[in-house]
Please model this.
Amino acid sequence: MAGREDTLLNQIRARVSIPRNSEIVVGIGDDCAVLRPRGAREDLLFTTDQLIENVHFRRDTHPAPAAGHKALARGLSDIAAMGGKPKFCLVSLAAPKWADSRWISGFYRGLLRLAGQAGAVLAGGDLARSKQFSCDIVVCGGVPRGRALLRSGARAGDCIYVSGRLGGSALGLKTQAGRAWRVHLRPSPRLALGRFISEQLHATAAMDLSDGLSIDLRRLAIASSLAAEIVNPPVFRGASLEQALHGGEDYELLFTVPAIMDARVPASHQGIPLTKIGVMRRGPAGAVFLNTRRLAPLGYDHFRQS
Amino acid sequence: MAGREDTLLNQIRARVSIPRNSEIVVGIGDDCAVLRPRGAREDLLFTTDQLIENVHFRRDTHPAPAAGHKALARGLSDIAAMGGKPKFCLVSLAAPKWADSRWISGFYRGLLRLAGQAGAVLAGGDLARSKQFSCDIVVCGGVPRGRALLRSGARAGDCIYVSGRLGGSALGLKTQAGRAWRVHLRPSPRLALGRFISEQLHATAAMDLSDGLSIDLRRLAIASSLAAEIVNPPVFRGASLEQALHGGEDYELLFTVPAIMDARVPASHQGIPLTKIGVMRRGPAGAVFLNTRRLAPLGYDHFRQS
Model:
């Protein structure tokens, strides 16, 4: 049973046809779209992500710089998941009256700090008034031609890995304290790790964990036309297994490597643990089995009927 | 006196530095950002525009397909203003409960129809829930390397032209009837014209008229460090001179051509009138003189104190 959001996406995708001479080589449905400019050495990755007041952040709990950081981190995480290196970003901002120039300045401070660290030049944007704060960020990244990590590349027998420990962001959102809250407020896009798994581990598929392992692994499995068998994933200290399985916004990487590369996967990369949680296998496309039992996709769905 | 929106933009721009090795060759402040991918034949143009409920459209007066058309037309118009050809677009949508699947389907129908005509493949996007409908669209276009039409390229003595007749969109918004209303609902991005003025007329500068001639010509003049002297522009049938001078959303092109090319500018291009309205000259940067009197920039400013 697909979520409402995925259903809506599929309906839109069904109405789009990509002409044969288009430079778009990957369209709707992956973490990024992929453009192959004629003559260029690199493929270009594009991702767009919204940050909306009371959906993705709350102004009473999220300082303005943290909101700016998170807005950009979401897009950078998609670039990381494709094995890319950020080039630039565009920021569209719709601000209500409460967002005064001090708040907006703080928002850009948090955003530009992360942009500087990641090498993503702020190249343009749009400004408008609205009743509810919203920000849409497009990030463009580059990847060697033909080497973008897609969701659809996993093969039967590939080992499934996650980075970090899951559920921290969901825990932080609940407790608003300690390290979990800091992790929720300022997620770290796994940019270096994305390039490492692509270049050194020959990862076959990857995506970032934005909506929760259960729903995101389902999406990767659907894209690869395979099933997935996993055991309990590594759990963030203090979080529950439920939070680790279904909690969103961890922005860790979920990836698959060929079985032959399994022994080459280090226990950690630059301090971030890498944990094998299972294997891809033939079976109903998108089915996820946790400890041999079918796992329902309970992660975040913006369009679920509530 | 610069508008609040321009002031905010300038504050953001002042905080951004573009590294010397960046492929970004034009950043914040023009209709599009310009990327020069290493090895590529073309420069890539990027623009991002929001369409927000009760700011850019009203659901009681704008049919869903018209809203979708307009959302994309805004971005295509920026590509036209740089002399570019559209490649793809990304659509981020934040939809409240009232926007049911029928409305959203109509929105995409209008959008995809225009996308198909313009050659802009819908390559990705983002979906979220919100209280107020908003849509942010990024359009990417291509232009021969180094040939993007900028706002900053006008030289003293260049002739100033506009396409079409101005004020129709402002008139339509007021009367909600007749041809003016149709023009307001479904603006036509001047894509073929943008390439014509770039390739055939060697235009030195261009931008699209989105916020009104008075404020947009001021922006072009500031970018080119010149003043502008104009006479009354061509007025849309039934519109007032005020609407033609200060009304927004006409999405016609404002451009400058070298005096030596003046005789080569046809009276119209593919049925769209081209009218000389004045000349760029040395003087206070951004000053606009209408019939020798200083013209105040009264066009649309999202952040004006009201």
Observations:
- The first helix of chain B runs from residue 4 to 14.
